[in-house]
Amino acid sequence: ALNQTYQNIELIILDSKSSDGSVEIIKSYNDPRIRFYPNNENEGCYGNCNKLISLAKGEFIAFLHTDDFYAPTFLEEIVNAYRENPDKKVFHSIMCKVDMGLNSVIPCCPFKSSGVKSQKEVLISLAFDNTIGNGMSVVMHKDCIKEVGVFDNQFRYAADYDMFMRLAKKYEFVYIHKPLAFYRLHSANLTNSVYLEMIKQGHRICNKNFKDSGIISKDLQKQLLANQWDSMILKAYYIGLKYRSKKLTEDLIEFYCETYPEFSHKKNRFSYLMPLLDLALKSNFTNSITAFLLRLGKLYKTQVSGNTQKILVKAN
Fold it and tell me: How confident is the model at residue 189 (pLDDT cuts 50, 70, 90)?
């Protein structure tokens, strides 16, 4: 964070009793821009973010988590975008997911070009899926906190998604179509129960924010859901393969059908995939076949993203 080309920053660090020597490393910098605070009570990711918000003195706020990093020009690009759009409050760039060796790059690109995005555009892009990422690519004015509030801790696994949607109900976003924020993927996977709860929270968040937005009509919401439905079911099979759990696939499909009963009759369109998933989990597939199946799953998401872009064009 200190290697930014834009230097007028404060770096607030909240340390939850780490024992890896990071405290000593931080203190060795002796940089007046660093403000270090011991975190005597760890309140989880979003609770800790709320503490950092209360400590911030700057005009804008961004969050950078352990192991993640920015391109050196990230803040400079944000500041330039603000100077061009001084009436805007929320700015963000492409966030890329990278492995620990910085080899595999998976970009989160909610839009195809830079520019000011309307509230409707942002909400549509976030329909039933967090296309922005974990929030490290987002920089928001402190006024936003006064308007929409801090992170909602009831959403333990998806409070960032809820924050993005609340922001989109109040503000236009300025999007920078450049890879400037990098999130490191760790080898440790989520447990099945945590992944299922994260999906459930995401859908509760989406439906709650759509319902009271006054921006997304019921007809448009239904259109967006219809656009996503096949992808949601296909992704359930993809996730079952990825996490090697047939039950996780079954639980996801059951949740989707209970939450959106008007579409549940369509689930049987892909019922032929269940015995294939069962076979895949019981067989010793080669790495090349497994990799092919996982790539196939990602193609579904790309297809839905393209369909969402078409809906965006129609909505505007």
Answer: low
pTM (two decimals): 0.88
- Rounded distance between C-alpha atoms, residue 176 and residue 70, angstroms: 14
Looking at domain 58-184, does it have CATH number 3.40.50.2300? no
> Where residue 53 falls among pLDDT bands split at 50, 70, 90?
very high
Q: How many residues does the chain have?
A: 316
- What's residue 27's pLDDT? 81
Band of the pLDDT at 24, cuts 50, 70, 90?
confident
Confidence of residue 272 (pLDDT cuts 50, 70, 90): confident
φ, ψ dihedrals at 56, nearest 5° = -70, 135
Of 249, 231, 166, 237, residue with least CA distance to 205: 166
How is the chain split into domains, by residue range? 58-184, 217-315
Instruction: Indicate if the pLDDT at residue 72 is higher than 80.
Output: yes
Could you tell me if 136 and 62 are in contact, meaning their C-beta atoms sit under 8 angstroms apart?
A: yes
Query: What is the longest distance spanned by two Cα atoms in the chain?
Result: 63
